[in-house]
Design goal:
Shape: globular
Largest sheet: 6 strands, mixed
Number of strands: 6
Radius of gyration: 26 Å
Strand order of the largest sheet: 1-3-2-4-6-5
Structural class: alpha/beta
Keywords: 4Fe-4S, DNA damage, DNA repair, Hydrolase, Iron, Iron-sulfur, Metal-binding
Biased composition (Low complexity): 60-75
Protein name: Type-4 uracil-DNA glycosylase
Strand content: 5-15%
Number of helices: 13
Family: Belongs to the uracil-DNA glycosylase (UDG) superfamily. Type 4 (UDGa) family.
CATH architecture of the domain at 86-286: 3-Layer(aba) Sandwich
EC number: 3.2.2.27
CATH class of the domain at 86-286: Alpha Beta
Length: 291
């Protein structure tokens, strides 16, 4: 075993990054755990299991009762439990979202909302960034580890690839609106549950209604399924124009592969490029970019 004191700063940073990617949220417990004592207790339990139990004698029972009476009644303080997604939490989320009259107010409402258990394990609340007046909205699935650390959507290597993808069709991330379906990173980058999705739905739909985009680009399988209401994979949902609703709005949207997926399988970049060209053509037809 290598002591932490023997690691260089770069090696220590790499180790912490590895744990963060694996979904580790806490490195320390409230009290030290004696693993050697646990091991000895396990061995003793096995030995006792192999030996027929003997009834304690009356003096032994009396001594045990006296020790128990003399011991102070110590109970661990109850730890706060995360909120459980349910119908009431969905109603609270809907009320908070509909009460917001601007994106700034909605951001404040989401940051103050405690009805989704994802918030209790996430470091940051991810909200839309960029220019809402552009008429162009890009929506990803859920924050990853880089997004959670930096507090912004599409961070890290995936964000760098996104920047290049947008630049290829004449867009800049600061000139359009970027956001995520889920504002908090699910532990270990797992997929958000159905209950968690329904709690977050009023917030993302309100973002769309307040931003009033003329066209939307969806990145990833999760976002496509969330808005299109279908269970197909991204390969079956990508490249097809569909309409999604938010409030009184109906907005044309197209889905493509997430930049993170393209880093894993670069061969699919040709599919994403075809979708980006279709998106660019729609932007030109709406006079949102130069023809």
């Amino acid at each position: 075993m290598v002591s932490v004191n023997e690691l260089s700063p770069a090696e220590l940073a790499a180790l912490l990054y590895f744990h963060a990617e694996a979904g580790v949220e806490w490195l320390l417990q409230e009290e030290a755990v004696d693993r050697f004592a646990e091991f000895e207790a396990m061995k003793a339990a096995r030995r006792n299991a192999a030996t027929p139990p003997q009834s304690p004698t009356p003096p032994e029972r009396q001594a045990a009762a006296q020790r128990q009476a003399a011991a102070p009644a110590e109970r661990a303080a109850p730890r706060p439990q995360p909120a459980i997604p349910d119908g009431e939490a969905v109603q609270h989320a809907r009320f908070a979202a509909e009460s917001a009259r601007s994106l700034a107010e909605l951001k404040t409402a989401i940051e103050a909302f405690n009805g989704c258990n994802l918030k209790h394990s996430a470091r940051s609340t991810i909200f839309a960034t960029g220019n809402a007046a552009s008429g162009i909205m890009v929506i990803g699935s859920a924050p990853g580890a880089d997004d959670d650390r930096e507090g912004t959507p599409f961070a890290g290597r995936g964000g760098e690839l996104l920047n290049r993808m947008l630049a290829a069709i004449g867009l800049d991330r600061d000139a359009i609106l970027l956001t995520q379906v889920i504002p908090w990173r699910p532990p270990g980058n797992r997929v958000a549950s159905v209950a968690e999705m329904e709690i977050c739905r009023p917030f993302i739909e309100r973002q769309i209604a307040l931003a009033e985009p003329k066209v939307i680009l969806l990145f990833g399988n999760f976002a496509a399924r969330f808005f299109f209401g279908e269970n197909d994979t991204i390969h079956g949902l990508r490249g097809k124009w569909k309409e999604i609703g938010a409030g009184t709005l109906t907005i044309p949207a197209i889905a493509t592969l997430h930049p993170q997926d393209l880093l894993t399988a670069p061969i699919n970049k040709r599919l994403a490029w075809s979708d980006l060209l279709a998106f660019q053509a729609r932007l030109k037809s709406l006079d949102l970019i130069r023809k």
